[in-house]
## 1
Amino acid sequence: ASAPKTHAFEADVAKLLHLMVHSVYSDKDVFLRELISNAADACEKLRYEAIADPALLAVDPQPRITLTLDAAQNRLSVEDNGIGMSADELAEALGTIARSGTRAFMDRVAAASGEGAQLIGQFGVGFYSAFMVAGRVEVVSRRAGSAAAARWSSDGQGTYEIDAVDLDAAPARGTRVVLHLLPDAARYAERGVVERIVRTQSGHVPVPIVLRETPEAEPEEIADGAALWTRPKAEIDADAYTDFYHGLSGQFDTPALTLHYRAEGRQEYSVLAFVPGMKPFDLLDTGRDGRMKLYVRRVFITDDADLLPAYLRFVRGLVDSADLPLNVSREMIQESPMLGAIRKGVTGRVLGELEKLAGADAPAYEAVWENFGPVLKEGLYEDRERRESLLGLARFRTTASGGGWRGLKDYVADLKENQTAIYYALGSDLERIAASPQIEGFRARGVEVLLLPDHVDSFWVMSGLDYQGKPFKSVTQGAADLGLIPLPEGDAAAPGAAASAEVTDFIEFLKTELGASVADVRASDRLTESPVCLVAPDRGMDRQLEKILAGAGR
Ligand code: ADP
Ligand code: MG
């Protein structure tokens, strides 16, 4: 082999390396994901070139990624039998950034603006993340179909070297990336650590991954290269989906809903998502992250890309995009406009599937509502665009529902004569609301009242919603409506309270006694059993919301 030639990194690469190590990545484990992703890309490129030149794949045709640990030497290597690189390609791929506008881009990233952060995400710079864990990186490569091999080597400090190497020091085809681990990164030569990272980050890469515990050890497969969601639905049985869900969620229930489809058109992506069959303990915690993972071409990117709105945070699963760039940072991919379009599509689809389930299997849907209704209801005030759909999905305990659930469609179909609103009663538990004197007059007239016991209810009812033109109205607000709704035939007529002089005198007495602690005292048609109840003024804050806000110290 000839003497190595030393080259300076293109200025932008030097700058990028500095950024990479000091500010881009927050989690060092991702270097392995990037190297595995490059190895898988190399296998896919070879597969593509071999379409025109089958001889390239005549020997050792099965794509494979081999991880070799060498704890004694403090080394980790990632090897593939993919396309490989010539000496020139090594210099081009690993010494320069072959894109235009690079400088402007770098300047914006260095300014650390949110926009620059978004841009770096669109940039292929994953290889350099190896320098977060390695003091020296060697890349030995042999291009498919070539009779020469070359080595690239650098400490990431400003220069790199390239030299030719003997064929027996290189892979027969493809690339070996050898990391000389930094002292604080020695764990990356440990089997347990590496296996865990591969399982969580690259378990679904489309190329099998094998591991050798030492350079002499036999390789053992640690990932089989099959991604469940890329397989046709017809080939996947319920058990395979459930197993996958168990691995994904760490829960061992049977999912209530499994959603698997491929979106085509402007955005191409696959979705595999589950509505759990049971409620996780931290469901109501609004700080709880969404549990949808983002993949790009089967490479895991992040599990906090906000792929679904907060009110669908109980859905577990993944989106695998064919179009998004393989990102350098989890933080940065969130701002991508492509992701916004995916989020919209997936959200609509999840709600659509819930609607379908509600229509096809009411008990199954009601079980979902029982578990996740309090979270879904957050969408009523958070997602104006989908209110209609969410109101259609909502189920309630009502004065007419017995032990079951009622939807608003049924409620509206059963409106009483002259009834123009949907009435609700808020409270902290069902029994207490159902026993409240506030709803006596409604009961007497057979007017159905929604019983709303969840914390979230106080918020959505205040957001000015209506359903099929019928506003939501609290039973504690406004007394007038009931006078218009007739009592059923045969029931005693309303007492005609206002006409009696005794009642007028009594009201005057109460007003004097209670003074400024009440706004008004009125005779009412609403009560049939209780002598008296407190009501909120027509335009005032609802009493239940008032209590919650007082409790929150606001
Ligand atoms: P990206 O993968 O987004 O292009 P990287 O920084 O990860 O960016 O890699 C830079 C380039 O180096 C790749 O585009 C590819 O040309 C080359 N490369 C890296 N690793 C390999 C590999 N294992 N086999 C072949 N080429 C590779
Ligand atoms: Mg890459």
## 2
Amino acid sequence: MNSKYQIAVLAGDYIGPEIMASGLQVLKTVSENTDFDYEISEVPFGGQAIDQTNDPLPDATLETCQNSDAILLAAIGGPKWDGVEKSPESGLLRIRQELGLFTNIRPTIINSTMKSFSPIKITEPIDFVIVRELTSGIYFGQPREKSQTQAIDTMRYSSEEIRRVAKVAFDMAMQRNKHVTLVDKANVLATSKLWREVVIDVAREYPEVKYDTSYVDSAAMKIISKPGQFDVILTENLFGDILSDEAAQITGSLGTIPSMSKGEVSPALYEPIHGSAPDIAGKGIANPLSMIKSVAMMLQYSFGRMDLAKQIMTAVDKSVDKKIVTPDLGGDYSTTKVTEFIVDSIKESR
Ligand code: ATP
Ligand code: MG
């Protein structure tokens, strides 16, 4: 039997391969001389896969992902594939569907090291996650129609779709500060009323977790005015899409934020929240922190290696503290130099 963890690696397009190299180097360093044993399979995905096979998600890539314990993705897409029939992004939608990745989780962390980048005044440490339903709601509901004078989108949810993502949120809260806020528009929307009914039921299974609700308009204000009050924000697809970009903005550092998409049984997928940044590709200046933190998130959530994740996060903080950072964070270090610094600090800390 092969007891090594299998990790599927999808480097993707433009800056994708540049930051993936950093992530893998850090993974290798942090697992050296430990019992964390893994094997990677690098497979084509997105634009890179379209060039090779005319398909953003080739069967072989999907199969590798299905047989892995976790998936690391850097970034896909870009102007080279504008207007192709099967876009790189359609590959991403398909992989989510095939693997049943119905939850997307994004952390927003602003500690004393990062607070100088925030466009808002940070008076207390910020550390919350948004747990967003990813495979249902208005982006998928039928009917969807458009004529010259009228258009229809449909927001639809089943109680089962709500329950499974709610459980992810409460499980996450149990590992964190035991507080879940459901964000909805229950004063107007029927779907939101169902969310409230189902989530209160799930909340009863987690008596230790404080549970409250917030309307989405009010939550949008609080993310700016009182972000410290949140621990886990649970919300549906459209609201989560908008709020998670808002939350990313208050960190002031798009190039540093990881994310995780997970389902019930399949391997979880970890990726930076930003795109493939064609404007800076090939210049060696892409910020690798989002990818490196995606590796840390994978170690923590897929493999239960909080110890290794912590080593990475400490080294990342140190690089920001010492201003060993790429131009997007005001430094003049290259992707490679930042990565080398992080690798060296991990080695020194042992
Ligand atoms: P997508 O639609 O794929 O999300 P996008 O149009 O939102 O793409 P991104 O690729 O996310 O754009 O990039 C937005 C801006 O942020 C660009 O100017 C890009 O150069 C910059 N950026 C994104 N990621 C990084 C990074 N890791 N390091 C430095 N700059 C980055
Ligand atoms: Mg974008």
